[in-house]
Amino acid sequence: MGKTHESISGRLRDFIEGQPMFFTATAPLSGDGTVNLSPKGLTGSWAVLDERTVAYLDFAGSGAETIAHLRENGRITLMWCAFQGPPNIVRVHGRGEVVLRDDPRWTELIAHFPHIDSRDHGLRAIVVVHAGLIRDSCGYAVPLMAYEGDRELHGRRFGREDDESLSAYFAKKDHVATSLDGLPGLPLPLPPAPAHAGESPSVVA
Description:
Oligomer: single chain
Low-confidence stretches: 197-205
Helix content: 10-25%
Mean pLDDT: 92
Structural class: alpha+beta
Shape: globular
Order of helices and strands: EHEEEEHEEHEHH
Number of helices: 5
């Protein structure tokens, strides 16, 4: 049944990198605070950085609970489960950090995501997770479901935004700069988006 692993490598890494989606779970320190669980999709938006570290791109949305919780306490669990093929569930329990667009590590980190154009999705931050506990389990009760492809709606909605309009969009939302429990969320206004290779910063949304 359940097994603990020392590293994210071999078949475990292949499994994580091959899934079309995963889930993140975080919570504030307050005992009566709001636990958050979020689905994450879009092919190419997460990567295994090394045997104990994973990262994913945090895109535009109407909330920022994960960012707020990580800024407060750093606790996070990521979960991948098989909806096709052999049953399997992988959980990475660890400490997460929010890398914002003006962080000096940004350019190095974004290079791990070459197969997605983050400009189409209002990229806000990169979340880096350092694994403390890596476990897999059977997943026998997870249903079999067919993956048809990524939705195009997110890219259509946010691909037309620039830094200024994206910051204005976030400012209108109740729980982007501040979490449901009043914790600091995404710092606004957004720093300018760093240029992609071969482009001028002035043309990057």
